[in-house]
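Crash report, auto-generated. Payload:
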Amino acid sequence: MIHAATVPPLTRMLMALHAILAKADAHCIARKIDPAALLTARLFPDMFPLTRQVQLTCDFSSRAAARLSASEVPNFPDTETTFDELAARIIRARDHVNSVDPAAFDGAERRVVTIKMRGQDVQMTGLDYLTIFALPQVYFHATTAYNILRHNGVEVGKADYMGLTGR
Amino acid sequence: MIHAATVPPLTRMLMALHAILAKADAHCIARKIDPAALLTARLFPDMFPLTRQVQLTCDFSSRAAARLSASEVPNFPDTETTFDELAARIIRARDHVNSVDPAAFDGAERRVVTIKMRGQDVQMTGLDYLTIFALPQVYFHATTAYNILRHNGVEVGKADYMGLTGR
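Recovered output after restart:
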């Protein structure tokens, strides 16, 4: 079951974010807004900007698929500076998440996963890793990306976040 | 496994939000800020204010536990106007989530759950309901509550959201 509780929701969230960014890109074009105004926007000076929120959504998704399948954690460099590049990054993350053999997730609920948390190695079961670490992180960064865009007047709605539109 | 993928993460997120609101309350007292300034704050005029984000985090949590255990969906009136009242609301939601007999979740992965989505009845398996509906909703509203507070200068951090502090 852990594959079914990991890959479909991550795929759905990534593609929801992909559709949300497409709307933000179109918003910039329609209103002659410099895309950098949104891509570098933050909700507070010491929070990450939109670009980084998207990168982190991708990273936490890819790492979840890798760690739960005991496969290599992919390394995607954080070089994106445009909506098109962020869209491509999301597709790479989705493709990675979907490329992992479902059978490799078997037994991941009870397998020990080691992560760095506040600089220290923390061990937890795969189930705890997914449910109290990876998913809250993915949804945090996807929601914060959404909130940055909403705060800047981009017309996206809850249905976009839930993946009910734009597929 | 569906009980383990539902109750512990919901409990953890609710208690993280409880701790975050306690810091917001303390922030208001220390700086002589009217708590209503935060409780009614929104990231955009047509988004819900903090109070409603907290109520929705509670509601989606309680409904998840109820629907997955085929037990009664509790009805909590939305009457909170203070941090203390929101804290009590969170505790009620947590107590409800934890009061459900774990055995009642058995087989919920495959049981059909019916929810209203955009005014229409939508049926899905319990697993889909949890992973692509309930959890994304809970984390959306908890993150948005956090983002409203961050945007208003309350000193909370990711560790608070992840439930690593203030327990």
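Post-recovery validation: The first helix of chain A runs from residue 7 to 30.
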